[in-house]
Automatic annotation (TrEMBL):
The keyword Oxidoreductase does not apply. Residues 36-135 form the HTH hxlR-type domain. Coiled coil: none annotated. This is Helix-turn-helix transcriptional regulator. It comes from the Archaea. Pfam families: HxlR. GO terms for molecular function: DNA binding.
Length: 142
């Protein structure tokens, strides 16, 4: 499948119209809960290296050890440790500690995280077609 076909396929999965219709079908209490969850997710994903870490899991085909993540992403150990703890606490990753010498700890995505992974695929396809222009501030001058 070529890039254009992949982008078209992703765009046809959920349209803005579908999202609006779904949102309008929710009660105000449900809408508030969804907005809270989205805000909390974006706050978590906006933290340093959070997107890089989850993206690594999205494209990995096996559980990952701390050292594998650290070397793949070149993230300072303290920062990586904190992010992984936050993902475990949020229910996005599970942590398995093995009683071995040397100690071995593996992280794997939970079904909750796996449900987010198509978003990472979509973002990567979007990035193939687009790029951000960091030199512009988005303002129009006349």
């Amino acid at each position: 499948m070529d890039r254009a076909a992949m982008l078209e396929a992703f765009n046809s999965i959920v349209t803005v119209h579908d999202a609006r219709s779904l949102r309008e079908s929710l009660s105000s209490r449900e809408q508030e809960q969804v907005e809270t969850t989205v805000t909390e997710l974006f706050d978590l994903l906006g933290k340093a290296h959070a997107m890089e870490i989850l993206s690594l899991f999205a494209f990995a085909d096996k559980p990952l050890r701390f050292s594998e993540i650290e070397s793949a992403l070149e993230i300072v150990a303290n920062t990586l440790s904190v992010r992984l703890q936050e993902f475990v606490a949020a229910g996005l990753l599970s942590r398995t500690k093995y009683d071995e010498v040397p100690p071995r700890v593996e992280y794997r995505p939970t079904p909750k995280a796996e449900a987010l992974f198509p978003v990472f695929g979509y973002v990567h396809i979007w990035a193939i077609e687009h790029e951000l222009d960091a030199s512009k501030d988005g303002e129009n001058t006349h």
